[in-house]
Amino acid sequence: MPENVRPVRYEAGIPVYRYWSDPAAPPLTVTRFTAETRPAQGQWHIHDFPVLIYVYGDGGVLRAGRRELSLSAGDLYVIAPGQVVDGAGASTFEGACGLFFDPAALGDESLAPWPAWRAHPLLFPFLHGNPGGLLRLRVPPERQPVWENTIEAIEHELATRRAGYRQAAAAHLTLLLVEVARLAVDVVGDLRRSNESVLAEVFDVIEQRYGEPLSLRDVARAVGMTPAYLTTLVRRRTGRTVQDWITERRMSEARHLLSESELSITEVAHRVGLLDPGYFTRVFRRENGLPPRAWRARVAAT
Predict the structure, then answer these.
(1) Are residues 281 and 163 located together in one domain of the fold?
(2) Is cis: bond before 115, omega within 30 of 0?
């Protein structure tokens, strides 16, 4: 796993990894699968963020759930967050790379949390809902050199870290995601005709009310569903709970306020709907790896 990817919890004994938000590091990592990067045999895990795997060489196997997929050059796998993946398959090939990224890489993270198709429609293919969490696409032969060159350009930006490298890396990633959206156009169309309008309502409620006390029951009441049914729907489509998304939106706004204002920690806590500053500090540290004051100091130093 990349350095910025860390386990944050377990579900049924399986570690759940998130892309750690760090003001000193870019919210995007490219990992070339080699003998050195292969995970331990049988290492099941869950990504709590979007992942792309691009295959540039023939051979090898990728495993997810009970599926075992043979790989060939031009294969592109869109991995849905919240799905169990068997990382042992990475040990059988070296001609592939993974793009791990925080959706904040695509724009102002003070906007709605992902999957916010109003703000970031390019993330929509990651909600494909396929068994095992994998959507397999094929990059046409004439576009494969473009993919390889773009990925190399991202690696160069991340390695050199010259002025504007974060924006440059994000721009390259955006171009790749545009291609993903075009390759997955049928899948996206099917999703738009299914239950995604309900998810849009859920995120609208969170967006409008994250600054006040807000619970799963409140969101369920606002969209006209029972809490149990809404929990099942949101978890199935996003891999996370409604409460997870409420917390994510609050933390996104808290990071923005800490970075862009001189508000006190107490005032930031109140602005994001958490009236107890001590509880806010505990949640912020759990979700971001640093307490609020340390986060603010680190941003100021970068």
Answers:
(1) no
(2) yes
Listed residue (204, 238, 239) closest to 219, CA to CA: 204
* Domain coverage including residue 278: 196-301
Tokens (6 digits) for 14: 């399986």
At residue 98, what are phi and psi to the nearest 5 degrees?
Answer: -115, 140
* CB contact set of 137 (below 8 Å; sequence gap of 6+): 75, 76, 77, 78, 180, 183, 184
Each residue's pLDDT tens digit, 199-239: 778 888 888 899 999 999 999 999 899 999 898 888 877 76
Number of domains the chain contains: 2
Residues 29 and 150 grouped into a single domain: yes
**Residue that is last in its domain, among 161, 177, 192:** 192
Looking at the structure, tell me whether residues 157 and 264 fall in a common domain: no
pLDDT of residue 278 exceeding 80: yes
Q: Do residue 123 and residue 164 come from a single domain?
A: yes
Which domain CATH number covers 182?
2.60.120.280
pLDDT one-digit tens code per residue, 38-79: 544 446 777 878 889 999 987 777 766 566 777 889 999 888
For the cut 70, the answer to whether the pLDDT of residue 133 exceeds it is no
